[in-house]
Amino acid sequence: MSKRDYYEVLGVPKDVDDAALKKAYRKQALKYHPDRNPDDPDAEEKLKEINEAFAVLSDSQRRARYDRFGHEGMGDMGNFGGFDLGDLFGDLFGSIFGDSYRGQRGPARGQDLLMEELLTFEEAALGTEKVLEVPIHIPCDTCEGSGAEPGTKPDVCSVCRGNGEVRMQQGFFTMVRTCSNCSGSGQVIASPCKTCKGSGQQEEMTEVEVNIPPGSYDGLRIRLRGKGEPSTSGGPPGDLYILIRVDEHPLFDRDGDNVICEIPISFGQAALGCKVDVPTIHGMTSMKVPAGTQPGTVFRLKKKGIPRLNGPGIGDQKVRVMVEVPKSLNREQRELIEKFEELSENSKDCTPKRHGFLEKVKSFFHIEE
Question: How sure is the predictor about 98, in pLDDT bands with cuts at 50, 70 and 90?
């Protein structure tokens, strides 16, 4: 089933400002929150749709890309710009619903991780596979994850009584805050483990395979579900986000799905016409340059560009021809060019732009022959 338009999901116009967007999100999220709709089995899916729409439209870069390309240009929409929707919703509505949206019906999931990966121009354009070394945290071998020195054990926090939260009633509303005494763990460690310094965790490097899709661009985030930090309470692991960075290329620039390349040719090649070898991300190809080609002329090589991200089709390569003027001439070369100038001085067909310009100058200043 195709996705609904994000503006339609939130019930806002395309020129909506940030304040109105946030207000609309609050309204829709409250309306479809599962705690308010216990008998509606579709409430949770509706809320996910609302969260997805807000995550994209509240990010200026993603919103601009969505306005231009629609859903097809968004890539992995599980990303939502790299922030946790549970945290977002909890920040907006935690005082009303407590932690019900944060998944407190079961063990908390592990933390999400973010890593940057630098790709070459070709790797991003054509896609590649990478094996990344990802640092994750596992239970400490010395204290077996308790955080306490062997032979001791953590004490229950006296402030929150082991809940990790402090609840305060204000009228009809219940305010929930993380316990500051135990930082939400529900425990206080009197004798911290010397190996992990009381954290209960130690760092371990793990290999993760990631598939970089063709058409990837600088700033794209790829989500790998379940490849983040393990949960400390028996819940599911977090996710791993890969932030794509693309290195500059000595020959190519990118314009959407098109590749731009400049090639120098000589005056003689431009005047007489020729065939030139042109580099593309798909390999070398031959291109015909017709006689009389002017400096700055752009030729198009169809389907020699970048595959469309998560969709059919491939862009083109635009080749801009730059006519190179000789910087130094030997005697014979100079004599030949001087002879050419003499022969073409009065030829309007040879240099029509120059003669046209001279005619305009004469007319403007009323110069007579």
Answer: very low
Query: Is pLDDT of 176 > 70?
Result: yes
Domain spanning 111-147+198-247: CATH 2.60.260.20: yes
One fold for 1-105 and 252-325? no
Assess contact for 100 and 35: CB atoms under 8 A.
yes
Q: How confident is the model at residue 369 (pLDDT cuts 50, 70, 90)?
A: low
Tokens of 123: 């790797």
Fold of 1-105: Helix Hairpins (1.10.287)
How does pLDDT run across 112-153, given as a tens digit for each residue? 999 999 999 999 999 999 999 999 988 888 988 888 899 888
Nearest to 159 by CA among 139, 141, 178, 172: 178
In this prediction, what percent of the chain has a pLDDT beyond 90?
A: 41
Per-position b or e across 202-225, b if 16+ CB within 10 A of its CB: beeeeebebebbbbbbeebbbbbe
- The domain 252-325 having CATH identifier 2.60.260.20: the answer here is yes
Write the single-letter amino acid at 72: E
Question: Which residue do the tokens 């046209």 mark?
Answer: 356
How much is the average pLDDT of 250-271?
95
